UniProtKB/TrEMBL annotation, chain A:
InterPro entries: Metallo-B-lactamas, Mito_Persulfide_Diox, POD-like_MBL-fold, Rhodanese-like_dom, Rhodanese-like_dom_sf, RibonucZ/Hydroxyglut_hydro
Catalytic activity, as annotated: 3',5'-cyclic UMP + H2O = UMP + H(+); 3',5'-cyclic CMP + H2O = CMP + H(+)
A single MF term (Gene Ontology): sulfur dioxygenase activity
Organism of provenance: Paenibacillus antarcticus
Protein name stated in the entry: Rhodanese domain-containing protein
Entry-linked SMART domains: Lactamase_B (SM00849), RHOD (SM00450)
A GO BP annotation: glutathione metabolic process
Segments forming domain Rhodanese: 17-114
PANTHER family: BETA-LACTAMASE DOMAIN PROTEIN (PTHR43084:SF7), PERSULFIDE DIOXYGENASE ETHE1 (PTHR43084)
Biological role stated in the UniProt entry: Counteracts the endogenous Pycsar antiviral defense system. Phosphodiesterase that enables metal-dependent hydrolysis of host cyclic nucleotide Pycsar defense signals such as cCMP and cUMP.
TrEMBL record, chain B:
Classification via Pfam families: TusA (PF01206)
Family note: Belongs to the sulfur carrier protein TusA family.
InterPro entries: TusA-like (IPR001455), TusA-like_sf (IPR036868)
Name by which UniProt lists this protein: UPF0033 domain-containing protein
All residue ranges annotated as the UPF0033 domain in the record: 7-31
Amino acid sequence: MTVTKWTAADVARKVIENQSLFILDVRNADAFQDWKIEGHQFDYLNIPYFELLDGVEGILPQIPSDKDILVVCAKEGSSIMVAEMLSEADTTLSLSYLEGGMKSWSGYLEPIKVADLSGNGELYQFVRLGKGCLSYMVISEGEAALIDAVRFTEVFTSFAQEKNVTIKHVFDTHLHADHISGGRSIAEATGATYYLPSKDAEEVVFDYTPLEDGLTVQLGASNIDVGALYSPGHTIGSTSFVVDGKYLLTGDILFIDSIGRPDLAGLADDWVGDLRDTLYRRYRGLAEDLIVLPAHFMIIDELNEDGTVAKRLGDLLADNHGLNIEDEREFRSIVTDHLPPQPNAYQQIRQVNMGKITPDYDEQTEMEIGPNRCAVR
Amino acid sequence: MKADKVVDAKGLACPMPIVRTKKAMDSVASGEVVEIHVTDKGALADFPAWANAGGHTILEQSEDAGVFKFYIKKA
């Protein structure tokens, strides 16, 4: 059989539809251990391409003949070479390679409808499977609001066009440290208002509209509410949103199976009290039937069957470990002393989101390589 | 530093810089040095990992205006 080309969208279908796949990742061991394509039913073999230059015969016994095999590398060149070598060595294998490699995987967004809202409204979650980022679009009768849009701005603007809606409001729940925001560019391109919490924006070098507690915008004729709720802790400005009275967009404060980390702006000790207060007081005062929609997922198990990342607040209050640490000192210790490594280039990424540096597309891609790491479990 | 062989892999994308370097390495004797010029950023991680796997030694590594230079001694 010949080698076929798969796009990141093809791989996303395999993840969301819970299908099996055998991934032969030919990047370095370090790169593979740090970050790979995650799927519920995926098996992996990691052999760097440069160990296969003399032939692939040695690894043939480890390659299954009854599964789709996807060869993956950083960009795509090495995966094509290895896939073709395998195809020559065993013509019965079902071989493909990932077009654009891990770079393209990092940048792929899958839009999934979370719910129909009041009137004819709709709520979409854009799942960035390769990086774990989640962005949101609220649509109602010709108007749209965007929350935590990532930098692939044309995905959102073409989606809005397809849905025949005008993007009116663009929000960032906080100044992101793990990925580059697309919010400001989208607002510039569409004439929408760009909101950022002013407490996170002290160093930004562009104009924005302050996102304050209690600010509410209404969308479309049925006036779907998008309301801001100040919820500091991941950053001092972090703000949540309640959409249509039913959905709680928590930004990087509360995730499905973890909670936000307070250290990415260098002030963990100062902000841990705010984080505690948001998670144990502010959120506990809200209706338990709210559906939590976070700005990230960390592991593939956090995806629901339809590919969305969403869970009832009441269930999280009962099950999420980070919401159930009685002892304040223990909580403080967990979110300040036992933190995972920081996201790749997080300080530079903050600078980009403040408008202080303007890297080109390739440099932005490099900065965002790797998992998001915004949570503590 | 004096090299026994020079590989110009500027402008080439992965996997070609390593493929060419491997060929050059196969053609020199143990203890001889191959000098590589490469522009693909992936080389920064790949050359050390590849050299390490083969037991070769990176004697020197530098960057000048986007061109990475490696001197690798054959095992």
